[in-house]
């Protein structure tokens, strides 16, 4: 610290002062090392043991196993970002505090908030990187890994649901007491799906006031050009509500106006971990029309989780910086123990709140953000206490 105060704060590379670059170096280099370490441990614990079993028991090719592990790496790198930010800030500021460098910086008038600022900005950068990684890399890599493994093991992932496609539509109507209630509007049922052809189709249409329509067809196929369903070899029965009159007609081909949603529901083959936000919202539209409330709630929670997860990096930065800057002689083993405790508490709280959101106790927003908001509060309070 032989440099004068003006030199310490003079702008240099990327507009950063010498102090900023010095603190950033204390954090970024450990961060990169920890990302590599944690993601490698994650792959070893979450993938390699299982893939070795697939090799020995099912004869999975080594080349396929290596590709599978490489495709799973992005998921574990994304998981490693928050933990790495926590450990890097905790260790970095603990070292500065242990060697009295924080005291030297504060003695020249630098506030603790200013000292923590480089780490905070770095955590925002990592949060953005984590969001992009989780949106554009992880879902695609997970899906490719799952498809490749299933093909290699002779377990072709069914692209289309095999049987019993059931798609209802509902509408709100007023009863005699002017109370709104939900009633069935239209129902599409198919016994099975072969390729893109529905077999054994029955359609109930109650959308016209006073008229019920029942259509039974041997097969149906979505007409992409016209945006309608083509029904083949069936019968159509139309009657008024009390059944006092009706008409009956057979057909070889009937063009019927109905959404593509039954085919979307049947062909839904990615789980939530294999979809980004845009794909999840597209699935949500189909689920809304099917009125699958449980699944809709899960997708809403999942979308909020996708947005909230990157901000764990900022939360962990606040906690790591606040604890690391406290005037304690904290060695790396203690730092690691504190980090493990923070990660455990955070993820338990997050797991419980997400579970509450999935069953409707919490709103999707609260379920996804509760742990983050708690972490922001605790981190901010600890930092305030350290600064005081």
From TrEMBL:
One GO biological process this protein is involved in is:
lipopolysaccharide transport
What Pfam families does the database record attribute to this sequence? LptF_LptG
> Mind listing the UniProt keywords for this protein, alphabetically?
Cell membrane, Membrane, Transmembrane, Transmembrane helix
Q: Which InterPro entries match?
A: LptG/LptF_permease
Subcellular localization: Cell membrane
Predominant location of this chain?
membrane
One GO term describing the cellular component:
ATP-binding cassette (ABC) transporter complex
| This protein's record includes keyword Transferase | no
Q: How does it sit in the membrane?
A: Multi-pass membrane protein
On the tree of life, the source organism's domain of life is Bacteria
> Can you tell me where the transmembrane regions are?
22-44, 76-94, 115-133, 307-324, 336-356, 362-384
State the PANTHER family in the record.
Answer: SLR0882 PROTEIN-RELATED (PTHR33529), YJGP_YJGQ FAMILY PERMEASE (PTHR33529:SF6)
Q: What is this protein called?
A: LptF/LptG family permease
Q: Which organism is it from?
A: Lusitaniella coriacea LEGE 07157
């Amino acid at each position: 610290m032989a440099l004068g105060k003006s030199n310490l704060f003079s702008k240099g590379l990327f507009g950063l002062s010498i102090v900023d670059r010095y603190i950033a170096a204390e954090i970024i280099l450990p961060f990169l090392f920890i990302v590599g370490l944690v993601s490698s441990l994650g792959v070893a614990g979450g993938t390699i043991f299982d893939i070795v079993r697939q090799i020995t028991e099912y004869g999975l090719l080594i080349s396929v196993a290596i590709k599978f592990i490489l495709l799973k790496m992005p998921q574990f790198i994304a998981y490693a970002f928050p933990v790495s930010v926590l450990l890097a800030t905790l260790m970095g500021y603990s070292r500065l505090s242990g060697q009295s460098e924080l005291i030297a910086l504060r003695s020249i008038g630098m506030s603790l908030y200013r000292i923590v600022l480089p780490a905070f900005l770095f955590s925002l950068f990592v949060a953005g990187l984590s969001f992009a990684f989780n949106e554009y890399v992880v879902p695609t890599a997970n899906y490719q890994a799952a498809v490749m493994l299933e093909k290699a093991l002779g377990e072709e992932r069914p692209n289309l649901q095999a049987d019993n496609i059931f798609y209802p539509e509902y509408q709100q109507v007023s009863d005699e007491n002017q109370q709104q209630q939900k009633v069935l509007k239209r129902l599409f049922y198919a016994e099975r799906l072969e390729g893109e052809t529905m077999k054994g189709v029955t359609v109930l249409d109650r959308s016209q006031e006073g008229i019920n329509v029942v259509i039974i067809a041997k097969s149906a196929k979505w007409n992409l050009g016209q945006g309608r369903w083509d029904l083949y070899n069936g019968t159509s029965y139309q009657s008024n509500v009390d059944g006092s009159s009706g008409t009956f007609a057979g057909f070889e081909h009937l063009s019927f106006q109905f959404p593509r949603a039954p085919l979307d529901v049947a062909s839904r083959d990615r789980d939530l971990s294999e979809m980004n936000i845009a794909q999840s919202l597209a699935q949500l539209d189909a689920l809304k029309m099917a009125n699958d409330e449980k699944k809709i709630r899960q997708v809403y929670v999942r979308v909020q989780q996708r947005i909230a997860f990157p901000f764990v990096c900022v939360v962990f930065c606040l906690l790591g910086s606040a604890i690391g800057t406290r005037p304690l002689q904290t060695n790396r083993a203690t730092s690691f123990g504190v980090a493990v405790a923070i990660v455990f508490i955070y993820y338990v709280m997050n797991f419980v709140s997400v579970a509450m959101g999935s069953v409707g106790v919490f709103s999707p927003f609260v379920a996804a953000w509760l742990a983050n908001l708690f972490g922001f509060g605790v981190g901010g309070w600890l930092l305030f206490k350290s600064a005081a």
